[in-house]
Amino acid sequence: ELKNPIEKSEIVLEEGKVLYNDFCSHCHGEKGEGNGTIVDLGKFPPPPSFSNQLKELPDGKMYHSITYGKNLMGPHGLILSPEERWKIIHHLNKLQGK
């Protein structure tokens, strides 16, 4: 039920995209399809896709997963500020087609 407190704007979306590319795309891929460079190297199995399995994932669950980690994904709560996490979630919503 947790909702994104940061208002969506073009600037926020662009900042979220940059943060996603820096911290997430190596596993999740540029478009969130689970085909990042680390996956292509055969180092890890592909994570779920934001266009399929995670298409309906709510903001609060994404925030929790980014903060505390999930499965093979480590926690990013000490690496990314709450504001940065919410900006990434705005970008993830765009990848989900929202």
Helix/strand/pairing category: mainly alpha
Content of β-strand: under 5%
Can you tell me the overall shape? globular
Main sheet?
none
Give the H and E element order: HHHHH
Task: Give a structural overview.
By secondary structure, the protein is an all-alpha fold. 47% of the residues lie in helices and 0% in strands. The model has no long low-confidence stretch (mean pLDDT 93).
In short:
The chain has 98 residues and is mostly helical. It contains 5 helices and no strands. The longest helix has 14 residues, at 10-23.
Top keywords for this entry?
about 100 residues, mainly alpha
How are the SSEs ordered, and which strands pair?
Layout: H1 10-23, H2 25-28, H3 37-40, H4 59-68, H5 82-95
Helix pairs in contact: 1-5, 4-5
